[in-house]
Amino acid sequence: MLEGNLEATKHRFQKRPNKLWTHLSDGTLSKSQIDYILVRRKWRNSIKDTVVSNSFNSLGSDHRAVMSAVKLSFRKCQAAPRIVRYDYNPLKQSEELQEKYSVEVRNRFSLLLNQEHEEPHNPTAEYGKFMDTVHETNKKLLEHIPRRRRDDPSKDVRVAERRRNLFKAKEDYHSDPSEETRDFVRYCKETLESSYAVVAEESLSSKIRQAEIAADRCKNKESWALINDITGRKNKSSSLIDGGSAEGRLKNWQEHLKKLLGQPPVVPDEEMEVPTVHPPQDIRIDHFSKEELLEARKSIKEGKAFGEDGIAPEILKRVDLDDLILRFCNQAQDLLHSVELAANSIGLHLNESKTKYIGVNLSDDDSTIIKAVSGEELEKVDDFVYLGSRIIRTERDFEVRKGKAWGAWHQLQDIWKSGMRRDMKIRLFRATVESVLLYGWETWTIGHCLEKRINGCYSRMLRMALNISWKERIRNVDVFGNIPMPSVMIANRRMRMAGHIARHEDLLANKLLFWEPQHGHRGRGRPHLNYIDMLKRDTSLSSTDEIRTMMLDRDVWRGVVAARTKKPT
C-alpha cells in the first residue's frame, strides 16, 4: 500500500460494530473484517462514504459487499488546437496563385496593423499578426489535406472482401452443415489470414523504406522510431522533478533558481580580451540585406515540416513576401542583441558542477588542475559523449553501439522468429539494427583486430535474425549475399565524407582533415591510428597530396570509392 500510495477507505468513516465485519466463517461463525476498497491518496477526498451491505446473502456467499460512494468533479480538457495541413502543390505550379497569395497576405496584414495600435513597435505582436494573416490566407486560397489515419488492415478492400466471403460461408454451413461446407469455411479463414499477412507486409515494407532513406541520411532517430512502432513501445511520459510532494518540488525549484540566478553579478570594469580560438570567419553582423534573403530562399527545401509559427517553407520560397520577411528578420536581430546586452550587464556565471574538461596529448603524470573563478576545481574526465558518440577511442564507441544494437535486435525478436520472407527480414535488419550499430562510423579509426570484431558482431546478429544456426555450417558469403561486409561499408562512408570535406573549403574540418603535427617527437612504440592512416589504407596511397588531388575531382574520387567497395574482404 505504501509503494502504491494507497489507503483503505473504510477506516475514514465511523460505523457501528455490526457494519464493520465483511466475512462470516463456516462452522465457528466468527466474523472478520477482511474486505477493503483501496484508492490512491489523491482521490481520498472524492470518497464520501463506505458501507457494508448484506446483498450477497441471497446468493449463499459468506462475504458481504463493501460499497463506496464516490463524487467526482469533471473538468473539460482543453486540447491543443488541431494542426491543419494544406496542399501546397498548386502554389508551386501556378504563378497566378502565388501573386494572388502575396496580395491577399499584404492586404490582410496592413489592415491588422491599422486596426490595432496598442503596441506599434512590438516585433512579437507584429509577427503574431503576420502568422494569423498567413493562416487565414491558407484557409481562403488553399485546400486542406484530410487527416491520415493509422494503418488499419481490417479496412483494406482485400481483407473486407475475404471477410464477407467468410461470413457467407458460415451462413451456408449453418443452413446446410456438411463436410464440404465445413472445408469451405476453413478455406475462407485461411484466405482471410493470408490477406491480413499481405496487408501487414505491405505496411511494414513502406515503413522499412522510410527507415532506409533515413539511414542513408544518417538519421538514427528514424530507425528507433520504426523499432518502437513495430514493437508497440510507447514513449516514456515526462517525470516530475524529485521532491516527494508538491511542496518538496516547489522547494527544489526554488533552490535551483536561487543558485542559478541569486548570485550578484560580477562584471569587470575593463574590457577583457578573449583570445581567438578559430580563424576569423566572413560573417556579417549588421542588418540582413535583400541579397542575403534571396540567397537564403534558394536554399529552402520544400516538403519539410513547418515550425511553431505554422508557415510552410513553400510559402517562404514561392510567395513574394521579401520586404515583410526582411523586416521581421532585422527586428528579431535587434531583439537578440538587446537580450545579449542585458545578459552581459547582469553577468553570466559558470556552473562548476556541470562543467567538465578532458586532457589531450598530456602525459600520464600531468597534474594540471583547472579551477573556476570561485576557486572550485572542475572535474576532469577521460571521455566525452558528443552527438551520441564517444570521441576519444573508437573501441569504446563500438562497445556502446554494440550494446544499443543488441537492444534493438531483441526488441524485434518476434519478427526474427516469424515466418517473414528473407528479403524483408534483411531490409528490416539493415534499416534498424545496422543503422544503430554503425552510427557515427564515418569517424572511426579501425585496426585489423577491431575490424574482425565488427564483422563478427554484424554477422552474428544477421545470422540470428535469419534463424541460421552455426550447426548448419553456412559460409558468410552465402549469408551476406549482396550485402557488403561492415568494414567495407565503413570505408565507403568514410571516404565519401572525407571527399565532401576536402571539396568544402568553408568548413573548419577542411583545415583539420590533412593536418599533421610539425613539432615535437613521437613517443616509443607503435603510433596510434589516425584518420589520415585510414584514408591511406583505403586508397592504397602513401602521399596525402595525391589523395587530396584525387578528392578535389569528384568523378575521380567516386571511382576510387567504388573500387574500394569492390575489394575482397
Structural class: mainly alpha
> What does the largest sheet look like?
2 strands, antiparallel
**Stretches where pLDDT falls below 50 for ≥5 residues?**
none
SS elements, strand count: 12
Average pLDDT for all residues = 80
The coarse overall form would be extended
Helix content: 40-55%
Taking Cα atoms only, what radius of gyration do you get, to the nearest Å? 34 Å
Strand order of the largest sheet: 1-4
First CA to last CA: what distance?
61 Å
Beta-strand content estimate = 5-15%
Helix run count = 20
Oligomer: single chain
Write up this protein.
The chain has helices at residues 89-93, 95-115, 123-141, 157-175, 179-216, 220-231, 246-261, 290-298, 313-318, 322-346, 394-411, 413-417, 422-437, 448-465, 476-480, 486-503, 509-512, 531-539, 544-552, 554-565; strands at residues 6-8, 23-24, 31-32, 38-40, 47-53, 65-70, 85-86, 144-145, 356-358, 379-381, 385-386, 389-390. The strands form 6 sheets. A two-stranded antiparallel sheet has the order 1-4. With 569 residues, it is mainly α. It is 50% helix and 7% strand. The radius of gyration is 34 Å and the shape is extended.
What are the main properties of this structure?
12 strands, 569 residues, 50% helix, 20 helices, extended, two-stranded antiparallel ribbon, mainly alpha
